[in-house]
Every structure is written in structure tokens, then in C-alpha cells.
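testing teh design pipeline on a random one, pls ignore if ur not involved
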């Protein structure tokens, strides 16, 4: 499912226009991103938890040249499925 299909699904389920559904989805995604940028968690009970984890700097290898390169540390987003989501897909 892509974003367009998700917007259509939300619009149909909530009986609202596609424009309103897209605005609501974009607002939700923006709020999640801003919260993660601050380093906080977003927990949707039953669905799951979005969090940020720091990936340490490490050595890597350029596959074309074989030369060792330094990969800097960075923050990565993580998602852990909640119990209701896990049950729904199994």
C-alpha cells in the first residue's frame, strides 16, 4: 500500500474527503517525525512504538574499490509492533 492508497482508505473509512484525509495523515507523520527528532518516543497503544536509536561510528568497506572508509554515527528510527498489531498479522 502506498500513500495514495492509504489516503483513499482513510477517507472511505472516516467518511471524509481525500483532501482532509491527506491533511490528517501528513499532520500525523509530521508530528511523529518532530517528536523523534527531539529524541522522544511515540507510543500508539496496541499498534506500536516509534523510537530513535543512535548507531555508533564504524569502519566500512567501499565495495567498488575495497578501500576502508569511516561511517559516521547517526540516529536511526526504529519501530516495535504492539500486541494488537502482532496478533492481527499472525
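output:
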Amino acid at each position: 500500500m502506498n500513500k495514495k492508497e492509504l489516503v483513499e482508505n482513510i477517507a472511505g473509512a472516516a467518511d471524509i474527503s481525500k483532501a482532509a484525509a491527506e491533511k490528517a495523515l501528513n499532520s500525523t507523520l509530521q508530528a511523529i517525525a518532530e517528536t523523534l527528532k527531539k529524541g522522544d518516543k511515540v507510543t500508539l497503544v496496541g499498534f506500536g512504538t516509534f523510537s530513535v536509536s543512535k548507531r555508533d561510528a564504524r569502519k566500512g568497506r567501499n565495495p567498488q574499490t575495497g578501500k576502508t572508509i569511516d561511517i559516521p554515527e547517526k540516529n536511526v528510527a526504529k519501530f516495535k509492533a504492539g500486541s494488537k498489531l502482532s496478533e492481527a498479522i499472525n
